[in-house]
Every structure is written in C-alpha cells, then in structure tokens.
C-alpha cells in the first residue's frame, strides 16, 4: 500500500510552470543547499552529497509533474526508513521548499500544486513522534 507510486501526471502543465528541466534543476540545487543550511534539519543532510540528492529530486518531481524523466531512486518508504523523521522535520522541509520556490519567483498557485503532490508522501516518510 505505502509502496504505491505517485500516479503519473496527465499532462505536463505543472512541469512547464516549474520551468521544465532547467527550472527544476535550479530549484532543487537551491532546495538542497537550503536543507543543508537549515538550523532545524540541516544535520540530517550532513552526509548527503548535494548533487546526488538534487538529481534524484529533479527526476522524481519531473516524472510526477508530467515531464520526460524517469525516477530510478528508492521509493519514499525505503529511502527514509530508519531516519526517525518527525512531523516537525517534514514541515521544516516543506518550509525550505517554499522559500526556495519564492526565491525562484515560482507563482503561488504553482507552488501549491507541487506541495499538493508531495504532501501525501508524509505517510511513508514520517516514522517518529
Ligand atoms: C515530501 C517530502 C520529501 C521528498 C519528496 C523526499 C525525497 C527524497 C528523495 C527522492 C530521496 C533520494 C532517494 C534515493 O536516493 O533513492 C531522498 C533521500 C533522503 N531524504 Fe528525503 N524526501 C522528503 C522528506 C524528507 C525529510 C522530511 C527528511 C529529513 C528531514 C528527508 C531526509 C532525507 C535523507 C537524509 C535522504 C538521503 C540522502 C542521501 O542519499 O544522503 N527527506 N528524499
């Protein structure tokens, strides 16, 4: 059940609104840098290779928004197993993503569409109180 992948997008409108592949690459580079620098959750990303995580996020979001990519990383449950991620950690990550989207001048409606796509993943990612 929790291993269910995201449903593929029916069109690429959200992918285009995010600036296509170059837009996503710029966004995710900023996002991962923001995660590493964040006082609340930066520690959890200290051993993460930024370029690697950024590429995985680009592929994941590109595919989920109808773009021409294939995400080949782990499913969200497997990827985050044993990390003890809390609701507070998850909300902090969402705030960093919002700040990154603001910095890229991504319109609010587009931001909300991406967040709506990612929000249900909390079930597979949050494993601790
Ligand atoms: C909607 C929210 C999230 C999404 C979409 C997401 C997405 C991803 C993806 C695609 C990967 C790469 C998996 C792979 O390499 O196979 C990953 C790894 C990881 N995630 Fe998340 N994640 C989310 C939330 C979180 C949260 C809240 C934390 C902790 C605060 C977190 C910490 C990590 C860490 C530490 C890794 C391993 C990175 C590495 O390879 O070193 N994630 N995540």
Automatic annotation (TrEMBL):
InterPro entries: Globin-like_sf (IPR009050), Globin/Proto (IPR012292), Hemoglobin_trunc (IPR001486). This is Group 1 truncated hemoglobin. It comes from the Bacteria. The keyword Lipoprotein does not apply. The lineage of its organism: Bacteria, Pseudomonadati, Pseudomonadota, Betaproteobacteria, Burkholderiales. Keywords: Heme, Iron, Metal-binding, Signal, Transport.
């Amino acid at each position: 059940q929790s291993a269910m992948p995201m449903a593929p997008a029916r069109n690429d409108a959200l992918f285009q609104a995010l600036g296509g592949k170059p837009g996503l690459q710029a966004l995710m580079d900023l996002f991962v840098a923001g995660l590493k620098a964040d006082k609340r959750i930066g520690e959890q990303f200290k051993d993460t290779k930024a370029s690697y995580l950024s590429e995985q996020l680009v592929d994941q979001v590109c595919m989920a928004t109808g773009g021409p990519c294939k995400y080949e990383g782990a499913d969200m449950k497997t990827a985050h197993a044993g990390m003890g991620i809390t609701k507070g950690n998850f909300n902090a990550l969402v705030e960093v993503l919002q700040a990154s989207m603001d910095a890229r001048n991504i319109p609010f409606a587009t931001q909300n569409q991406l967040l709506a796509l990612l929000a249900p993943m909390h079930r597979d990612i949050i494993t601790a109180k």
